[in-house]
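Researcher: We plan to redesign the surface later, but first we want a full-length starting point. Tokens attached.
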């Protein structure tokens, strides 16, 4: 596998040809990681962990997404730093491919999480380090 880690910039993605996609902003998690661990490298495992945890979203729409993009906002641009698909099994050996309520006392009510796996190598390398075009606010997930 030759997965690319975020290190260089590319052009904006043409979203007209993309499959159904959910973009999740993990900027706060990345910033907090580097505040606590200056000089360390960010790995695919870190990006995946930040992306699969609690989100306020509409699970019905989220569950229809074929790809889940991890996005980092830099200079008011949304840079893709990871591309994932929903895992087909959870830790109990059952279906883990749906966004589900998180029963964690640290999270606010109404938050959802999902088990993820990195997208295949070609898909990962196609989207990582590219920028998402600007969208209207009503189309964005917090």
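Model: Full-length starting sequence:
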């Amino acid at each position: 596998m030759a997965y690319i880690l975020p290190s260089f910039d590319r052009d904006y993605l043409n979203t007209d040809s993309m499959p159904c996609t959910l973009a999740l902003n993990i900027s706060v998690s990345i910033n907090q990681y580097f505040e606590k661990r200056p000089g360390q490298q960010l790995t695919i495992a870190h990006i995946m962990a930040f992306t699969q945890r609690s989100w306020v979203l509409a699970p019905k729409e989220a569950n229809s997404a074929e790809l889940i993009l991890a996005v980092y906002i830099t200079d008011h641009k949304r840079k893709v730093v990871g591309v994932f698909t929903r895992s087909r099994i959870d830790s109990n050996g059952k279906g883990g491919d749906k966004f589900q309520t998180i029963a964690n006392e640290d999270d606010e009510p109404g938050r959802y999480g999902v088990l993820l796996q990195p997208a295949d190598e070609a898909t990962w390398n196609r989207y990582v380090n590219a920028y998402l075009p600007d969208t209207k606010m009503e189309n964005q997930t917090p």
